[in-house]
Amino acid sequence: MKQKKPIRVLHVVGAMNRGGTETLLMNIYRRLNHQQIQFDFISYSSEEADYDQEIRSLGGSVITLTKTNSIREIYHAIKHYGPYAAIHAHTLFHCGVAMTAGYLAGVKRRVSHAHTTKDEGNSIIRKSYKPTMRLLIQLFSTHLLACSNHAGHYLFGRRGLSKQTYAYFPNAIEYTHFLYKDHKQVEQFKREEGLSNQRIIGHIGRFIAAKNHQFLLEILKACRQKDPTVMLILVGEGKLQKELQETAKQEKLDQNIRFLGLRTDIPTILHTMDVFLFPSIYEGLGLVLLEAQASGLPCIVSEAIQPEADLKLGLISRISLQEGPQYWADKIMNMVYKREKNTMKVKAAFEKNGYSVSLAIAKLMDIYISDSGGVYEEKNIYRLL
Question: Is the pTM of this model over 0.90?
């Protein structure tokens, strides 16, 4: 008997590097039964991305396109690699291009997904591009998803949020990976990085303007006045990293900073920190904030962080960037001993707020393949896991 081919879903991304959206997708993709359902990814990067090899090993395709605003390219990709049960775009206003191509190619389920609350482009062309793309998104999407209502409002507009096709979609993480502290690994990490017996503040994120790394240096300076041994650890890569490293050197802060690059041992690193800092200028949700809370780590965040990121564990403190680095430093010193150690309480918060991968898969399967229009039956979900 001939084996039935898996259902295929096409995700449209910029590149599958270790960002919040991409990590969310991989958390979901890894858990699927790949003989039953497969993900393919359209990428606009000519370079090999962090997750590309793993995607291929799981049976998915990474489809590299070159013209970002070409409906034709996506259309031909769908026809060549499909058929697809759904197309799911994560590329802000570019979702309008993907949704139009999906409609023309006959894909029945077309999902636009909002992940951020701001677009850096501000040219005259960009200003006309946004309303055009928003119109295409509303015309050709069958479903609208957002990691926060603020992100949804930014991409879809007020009219989009009022549609029956709109839904809040909590970002999912494998939170159990972060719950428990491996004392040996944490101590080994501290020894390797010269962090033993020191107060450690940290941040995880790409070195881009939105993450506000320069403000982190100002905070470090203020903290060092209170405790000269305080250390700042920064995880990530990006175009502004070299500039920040040079500034740290000029300000004589380099002895108090560790630039760790991209890492796979994030649970260990989070358990090393005393306070997590997230002073973003704008943010969709901040997946790493969920990971930090799963680790029981106190977090100090800017007013740009969406309220949906707070699991109500008493770990999140929101402070305006206008308060300045000295105020942030004072708050840090007050929070260094406020880690949440009750793992059952943390687990309950994740399940209550819908941030588990199993719940995320259930919602997506309902969109991609369910004909019921309601919640996808649990027995069918586990067939796909």
Answer: no
